[in-house]
Amino acid sequence: MPPAGKLNVSPSTSDTTVVKAELESCLEEGVLAFDVNPLRYWRENKSFNILKPFARNILGCCATWAPSERVFSKAGKFYNPEPAKLGPETFRALMMIKCNYDI
């Protein structure tokens, strides 16, 4: 028996054919209209069950560094390495409040 978490299974030819057929079918549909929300499209789409998880992972990635830069900017207002009067737990709590106050 293989160790937990590791499978020594190679994809069969039929599995590869199914994935290839689904990818080709998706590509034949063409580009979505500009006013279509791609995340909603993949959530509500009843076909492309193999490609759906990949699309959601790719579309969920940030396209820019702006969100992380905003967090670092906010952190710089709280944290000063010289006096270091804030403990790590207090710093985390303040950052959580500062970054999520609008939720």
UniProtKB/TrEMBL annotation:
Pfam families: Dimer_Tnp_hAT. The keyword Ribonucleoprotein does not apply. GO terms for molecular function: protein dimerization activity; zinc ion binding. The keyword Metal-binding applies. It is found in: Nucleus. SUPFAM superfamilies: Ribonuclease H-like. PANTHER family: ZINC FINGER BED DOMAIN-CONTAINING PROTEIN 39, ZINC FINGER BED DOMAIN-CONTAINING PROTEIN 4. This is HAT C-terminal dimerisation domain-containing protein. It comes from Portunus trituberculatus (Swimming crab).
